[in-house]
UniProtKB/TrEMBL annotation:
Keywords: Hydrolase, Lipid degradation, Lipid metabolism. One of its GO terms (molecular function) is hydrolase activity. This is PNPLA domain-containing protein. One of its GO terms (biological process) is lipid catabolic process. InterPro entries: PNPLA_dom. Belongs to the patatin family. It comes from Zingiber officinale (Ginger). Residues 44-239 form the PNPLA domain. The keyword Glycoprotein does not apply. It comes from the Eukaryota.
């Protein structure tokens, strides 16, 4: 009897039923095409958290992608923002996204991936004066619990409009009892949704006490608690944003038109079960469910259009600034993590996280090359009518000052 691919057959049946009875447009047709405009939208999503493993995973992955981009292009100033069209980040992931996608005085991103990590580590060390292992509750907890001064110094007067590309940072708004997304696209469309970048970062990192803020024009008020409460894994929100934002992504018609990199978190050493621990467990469970749903939505094009980088092992208690990135290479990027399969749950990946990043980095750079040859713009980022140039001066001064405390990038 001829061999039958049961997964493919089941998927085709499901797609047929979905296209005929659930939606007006055919999802199957969308999955079969490879981008009618000749390109795919590149999405970066960074999970929330404030523990060492959370930030380490994202920073290590992005630093590797950035290094690959520089080797490929021969451009030493190439940044993560050059590889993606949209960035979404929750909690510490939101702070990293903001640091990598906020525009500096020269029009370039404020930070490289390595510089962003060094600054966060430097600030955490300055506040605590102790090693990472003694920082209970997370490496950057001391930074994020009282974030106003630090975030102000980093971002100055910059607002969401100063993001180079669309950026999404979630929080939970106690005033409305619903999730709230700080969005560059919304900020460009209406003054009432333009917030200062440092306040958006404070909102997504808010812990026990809410952070109250208002938009630049004072029309919109938010009483925010952390993004992990509302959206620990913002991947689905980023995908929805792209597929429904026809002004900036006119040719994104389905999942096959996307390239998505989702950076997860890692488990930590067990701690007594309390309210905070239960909240963390719930947030991680929701993040895994989002990954499962997104992987299923990509179907058979998942391997080429979506990767999830997730660490498994516990972080070592003797992690120090000197071996921080080395720990990332040895423990996190060398791991093989589980990944979702269509109708078959999960299995251990055949590739390490480093291998997957290298392979997907090539896809991201090939997409850039395709766009250079295409007469049709794949992405049309709307520009703000009234850019706030005063913020750039503040940011430049801040970066120049803090850079003196960090070792140079090699």
């Amino acid at each position: 009897m001829a061999f039958i691919d049961a997964d493919k057959l089941s998927y085709e049946i499901f797609s047929f039923l979905e296209s005929k009875f659930l939606f007006a447009s055919s999802t199957a047709a969308s999955l079969e095409k490879s981008g009618g405009s000749g390109g795919r939208i590149r999405v970066l999503s960074i999970d929330g958290g404030d523990r060492p493993s959370d930030v380490l995973l994202a920073a290590a992955a992005l630093d590797r992608l950035e290094s690959s981009l520089r080797r490929h292009t021969g451009e030493p100033s190439a940044r993560v923002a050059d590889l993606f069209d949209v960035a979404a980040g929750s909690g510490a992931g939101g702070v990293l996204a903001a640091m990598l996608f906020t525009r500096g005085h020269d029009g370039l991103p404020l930070f490289s991936a390595a510089d962003a990590l060094r600054l966060l580590v430097s600030e955490s060390r300055r506040r605590r004066g102790r090693g990472f292992a003694s920082s209970r509750g997370g490496l950057f907890r001391g930074v994020f619990r009282r974030p106003g001064g630090f975030f102000r110094r980093v971002f100055g007067d910059a607002t969401l409009r100063d993001a180079i590309k669309p950026i999404l940072i979630p929080c939970y708004d106690l005033a409305t009892g619903a999730p709230f997304l700080f969005s560059r696209t919304d900020a460009v469309e209406a003054d009432g949704f333009d917030f200062r970048m440092w306040e958006a970062c404070a909102a997504t990192c808010a812990d026990s006490a809410p952070v109250e803020m208002q938009s630049v024009d004072g029309r919109t008020r938010v009483a925010a608690v952390g993004g992990g409460v509302a959206m620990a894994n913002p991947t689905a929100a980023a995908i929805t944003h792209v597929l429904h934002n026809k002004k900036e992504f006119p040719f994104a018609g389905g999942m096959a038109d996307l390239l998505v990199v989702s950076l997860g978190t890692a488990p930590t050493e067990p701690s007594p079960i309390g309210a905070a621990e239960l909240l963390r467990i719930a947030a991680e469970g929701v993040a895994d469910m989002v990954d499962q749903a997104v992987a299923m939505a990509f179907g058979h094009c998942r391997a080429n259009n979506y990767i999830r980088i997730q660490a498994n092992n516990l972080m070592s208690g003797n992690c120090t600034p000197a071996n921080f990135m080395r720990t990332a290479e040895d423990i996190i990027l060398s791991q093989r993590n589980v990944e979702s399969l269509l109708f078959r749950g999960k299995k251990l990946s055949e590739q390490s996280n480093a291998d997957k990043l290298d392979r997907f980095g090539i896809e991201l750079m090939m997409e850039e090359e395709r766009r250079k040859k295409s007469p049709i713009p794949v992405v049309v980022i709307k520009q703000a009518m009234t850019p706030r140039t005063s913020s750039a001066t503040t940011i430049t001064t801040t970066v120049a000052t803090t850079a003196t405390t960090m070792s140079p990038v090699h």
